[in-house]
């Protein structure tokens, strides 16, 4: 049995760890926009406030694995919009426009749409 075959049983747990860590980082962006914590180096506008609310609520739902697939779809779209509305206006390349995070969040959330929440999710309790 190969090393990778031995790791396969841990896939749902690894997916859960990815989901939880991503959600915690995403919630931080929401609290920054809504509550100024951690302190934001930008001015909060109405659009940022709406984005912050989506990030905070969506991040918490992803954290607990509740409605993971539809919420991840919504958050993936939000990050795509954020990239094109904010970051792309600065420069085309994510390394130059500080859009790396938006791109990674977008594709991690898109992955969660297809992969589901993994272990430790409230979605798993609803299925029973």
Automatic annotation (TrEMBL):
UniProtKB keywords: Cell membrane, Membrane, Transmembrane, Transmembrane helix
A Pfam family matched in the record: DoxX
UniProt superkingdom: Bacteria
Membrane-traversing stretches: 42-64, 71-90, 102-122
One GO location term (cellular component): plasma membrane
Keyword Protein transport: no
Record family assignment: Belongs to the DoxX family.
Protein name: Putative oxidoreductase
Organism of this sequence: Rhizobium lusitanum
């Amino acid at each position: 049995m190969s090393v990778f075959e031995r790791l396969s049983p841990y896939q749902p747990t690894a997916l859960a760890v990815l989901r939880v860590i991503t959600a915690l980082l995403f919630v931080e962006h929401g609290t920054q926009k809504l509550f100024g914590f951690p302190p934001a180096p930008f001015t909060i506008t109405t659009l940022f406030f709406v984005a912050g609310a989506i990030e905070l609520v969506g991040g918490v739902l992803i954290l607990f694995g509740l409605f993971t697939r539809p919420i991840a779809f919504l958050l993936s779209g939000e990050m795509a919009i954020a990239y094109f509305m904010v970051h792309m206006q600065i420069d085309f390349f994510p390394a130059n426009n500080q859009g790396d995070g938006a791109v990674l969040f977008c594709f991690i959330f898109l992955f969660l749409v297809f992969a589901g929440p993994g272990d430790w999710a409230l979605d798993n309790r609803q299925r029973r």
